[in-house]
Amino acid sequence: MFGLGLLALVQTSFIAIPEYSKADLIGDIDPSTHRDFDKMRSKYCSKTSYLREDCYDAFKDMWAAARKDGIQLIVVSAARSRSYQKGIWNRKWLTFGGAESSRAEKILQYSSMPGTSRHHWGTDLDLNALNNEYFENGEGAKIYAWLSAHAGEYGFFQPYTAFNPYRDAGYREEKWHWSYYPIASQMQRAYRKMIGYSDLKGFMGDEYAEKLKVINNYVMGIEGPNWLAP
């Protein structure tokens, strides 16, 4: 289980939500100049990456613990602006065929609409490889087993698990995607209060945001950390 310091932070997160702007929540920021973000050292990531300070500090502790156990964690994607996410989304929109509604649903299996990604918050990171198969064999399986056993000690959890009776909507399972719960949970609650479909415009197929209820099904459609269960 996680330590008393993290437990206190998690408990506090249920009491008071810091003030986040709409820009913070939908990614209309530049992580490289935002006062709450830090640039990650190159030994932690495969390319230039940024995280919120608290998340970065927790990741560094987790990285060091994993290394002692012979596990190498490498961040392959961290904070993303809405503009960056728009580029990902629009490229897939132009590449995928079929009817627009089914095209949107297909992209949403693994990619967020701009303005809805947890990566906008600087609390979420992708580790080592962007496919589930990597984490099911060999070294990848060892990494996933270590994360499943220990990530919660540092405040991280896997938000997109396999579908089950408690999570039957949203993205498919992503064994590479890990989220820093103490801050991400605050931002998720702020998102529910502050963001509406009028804020999710300006990308190809944006009319499907409301039609597919992406706020409820994708932003909120996660499974919480099992280490919070009583």
Question: What does the model show?
Answer:
The chain is α+β, with helices and mostly antiparallel strands and 230 residues long. It has a single domain, classed as 2-Layer Sandwich (Muramoyl-pentapeptide Carboxypeptidase, domain 2), CATH 3.30.1380.10. It contains nine helices and six strands. It has helices spanning 4-13, 22-26, 53-68, 82-95, 100-107, 138-150, 181-194, 208-211, 214-219, and strands at residues 37-39, 50-52, 75-77, 124-127, 156-157, 177-180. Strands 3-4-6-5 form a four-stranded antiparallel beta sheet. The longest helix has 16 residues, at 53-68.
Strand order in the largest sheet: 3-4-6-5
- Spell the H/E element sequence: HHEEHEHHEHEEHHH
CATH topology: Muramoyl-pentapeptide Carboxypeptidase, domain 2
What is the class in the CATH system?
Alpha Beta
Low-confidence stretches: 1-5, 11-15
Specify Rg, calculated over alpha carbons: 17 Å
Structural class by sheet pairing and helices: alpha+beta
Rough shape? globular
CATH architecture heading: 2-Layer Sandwich
Termini gap: 12 Å
- Total count of strands: 6
